[in-house]
Design a protein that fits this description.
Layout: E1 3-5, E2 13-18, E3 23-30, E4 35-43, H1 47-61, E5 65-70, H2 80-96, E6 100-104, H3 108-118, H4 123-144, E7 150-152
Parallel strand pairs: 2-5, 5-6
Antiparallel strand pairs: 1-7, 2-3, 3-4, 6-7
Helix pairs in contact: 3-4
Family: Belongs to the YqgF HJR family.
Enzyme class: hydrolase
Subcellular location: Cytoplasm
């Protein structure tokens, strides 16, 4: 599907995703306030269980758009994780009929790691929340960019 730049999102709830093959971090944000908060980490057991949980979150939070962190190499080149993530975004769009935005996530895990260190979160607790804090960083990047990113049509 083609990508286009569209006007900024000015209001409404946004769900952000830090995609991984074993865990998906989820964060929720409010466009008008440009705030984001960690929500949960989905453990990927099967596609159906994963998308069932996402469906429940979409029903609960009623987002206007979905934001997915797009992994690439440090130089911006795509890799296998990039194509898997794009497939995930395409599935979100196909199942839930919501706009999907891509955000460069190259440094979000490092940001999440730093935030958790500052908060004194270590060990098992850190592992449980790292992906959702990375999703929060993805939404923060989305909002700081004026919420106008490449969109999946």
């Amino acid at each position: 599907m083609p990508e286009t730049i569209i006007p900024p999102i000015q209001y409404g709830t946004v769900l952000g995703f830090d995609f991984g093959t074993t865990r998906i971090g989820v964060a929720v944000g409010e466009a008008e306030l440009a705030t984001a908060h960690p929500l949960e980490t989905i453990t990927v057991v099967s596609n159906e269980q994963c998308f069932s949980r996402i469906a429940a979150l979409i029903k609960e939070w009623q987002p206007q758009v979905l934001v997915v962190g797009l992994p690439t190499h440090a130089d911006g080149a795509a890799d296998e994780a990039t194509s898997l993530c794009r497939r995930f975004g395409n599935r979100l769009h196909g199942r839930f009929h919501l706009p999907v935005y891509w955000v460069d996530e190259r440094w979000t895990s490092a940001v999440a790691d730093s935030l958790l260190s500052e908060a004194g979160v270590f060990g098992r607790k850190r592992k449980q929340v790292l992906d959702q804090v990375a999703a929060q960083a993805i939404l923060t990047t989305f909002f700081s960019a004026g919420a106008s990113q490449a969109r999946l049509d």
